[in-house]
Amino acid sequence: MDGFQTSPLKTPAIEIVDLPSTHDSDDEEKRDDIPNDASFRDSDDGDDDDDLSLYEDMLDSMPDRAEWEDKPVDVCTVEESFAFRKRLRLVGEDQFITETIEAGTLSARKLCTAFGIRPPPLLEGQPDHKYYPLLGLGITRELTKRVKLPQYNTIDDAVELLKKSKNIIVLTGAGISTSLGIPDFRSKETGLYSQLQHLGLSDPQEVFDISIFREDPSIFYSVAKDILPSTRKYSPTHAFIKLLQDKGKLLTNFTQNIDNLESCAGILPEKLIQCHGSFATATCVECKYRVKGEEIYNDLKAGRVARCDRCIRTLRQLKPFGIKRKRSMNGLPSSKKKRQSYEDSTDDEDYDIAVAGVMKPDITFFGEDLPETFHDRLVQHDRELVDLVLVIGTSLKVAPVSEVSGFLPAETPQIYISREPCQHIDFDIDMLGECDKIVTELCRRAGWDLQHEMIEDNSIDVQLHEGYDSRYSFKIVPA
Questions:
Q1: Fewer CB within 10 Å, N or C, the chain?
Q2: Which of 276, 375, 424, 465 is catalytic?
Q3: Which helix (H) or strand (E) covers residue 390, if one does?
Q4: How many CB atoms lie within 10 A of CB 298?
Q5: Angle, to 10 degrees, between the axis of helix 435-446 and the axis of helix 155-164?
């Protein structure tokens, strides 16, 4: 995957799957000289870009290991997987392939499972060399994973890091807004994706697929009201980030959220990178005319596709000259045309809507590039300055934001705060529970005065997870 290492942060937004974490605090192997590619990945059929793209898409659609490891598939055990991944880091990719695949000790198909990859039905019954590209991608991802720093393990360590650090990157996701009633995306019962089954899509994420939006924007607009920010109220976690800024500690807040609440909390524009955009503005997909998000809020709330006023004005000016255009279906097949219920059928609107562009909120859809500011800020500014990373309220399932952790210097400590653990990245300290409660407790221990109307005077019980040295749960102690 040649482009992965040179610019892992400039790929379009895609979702990734969990790969099992090693939790190996003794393995401090540096990752500076990772091979770009391996000869074993070349198959008899060639290794063109289309084939590699197919395997990348296949890897990105894999289920979590927990969902398939008990099924009748020839897989590596957890112990074997751990040993293989440790050996890979110790000897490097070329020697690892020599000792395994070339030595015939096991098949590429089975070795894929050591890196959390379930052999896909598409390759069932195929020769073993057909699994080489998939295995190569799994190995590349393993080698670019971050290695936990063994010196940071306790809550006291986390507090001391907060107090002494001067350039903190805070990477946030939907979990910092759920206390405000804004749903996240992936929670099994309450997440937005779980509520979109009624749309009849093969994958609920298609709502945010740019190709689907271009075909039929009414699908997105039918659910936009559910994710449209309805308040300027922000959470205690937002207030915590603002407190870091006030103390001169905030380097950058990279947010994946599109609710724009960081701005409401007072995070300065020069300290904020909205990785996936926001509803603050909207742009016409045809003429690129940009407006404030408020101008299309009524359409968003009504589930009605917003059209570009400038396009409409232009078309109306052409009307007196007898120029009339039929509605454009953008080359859609007949099955897609049936879904164009968002278009009115009045005579006047034949002029206005026929080619008037659709207004798209300036949020990043799957398949779109992230803003240049994301890559530029991280590569040209933050990477050399950062001394602590806080990842809060995100499962890091969407690339390229998911690649940030592994891109930053290996010696920079990283702390993870969320409801559920992140299985595919080794953070130094994991704190699991409600984000608001956790940051409030950290501030209390640091002697910081975090002010917010939602903060309650509750005692927090902190427990170390069994089998871990640095994973904790935070729970409210019942009164």
A1: C
A2: 276
A3: strand 388-392
A4: 10
A5: 70
Active site residue 375: no
Asked if 358 contacts 217 with a C-beta cutoff of 8 angstroms, the reply is yes
d(CA 479, CA 440): 18
Long-range CB pairs of 417-423, under 8 A, 24+ apart, other chains included: 417/390, 417/391, 417/392, 417/393, 418/173, 418/175, 418/391, 418/392, 418/393, 418/394, 419/175, 420/395, 421/471, 422/21, 422/391, 422/395, 422/396, 423/18, 423/19, 423/20, 423/21, 423/64
- Cα angle 245, 247, 249 (rounded to 5 degrees) comes to 65
- Which among 83, 109, 234 has a CA at the least distance from the CA of 172? 234
Both structure tokens of 273: 């990178």
The sign of the dihedral angle between the CA atoms of 400, 405, 409, 410 is: negative
User: What are the mean pLDDT values of the chain's consecutive 10-residue runs (479 residues total)?
Assistant: 40 49 40 34 42 46 46 75 88 93 93 84 87 88 86 98 98 92 62 56 71 89 78 92 98 92 95 90 93 92 92 80 45 42 42 69 86 90 96 87 87 96 91 97 97 92 94 90
Output the six-digit token pair for 369.
């590039």
Output phi, psi for 39, to 5 deg.
-65, -30
Residue 105, CA distances (Å) to 102, 109, 404 in order:
8, 12, 35
pTM of model > 0.85: no
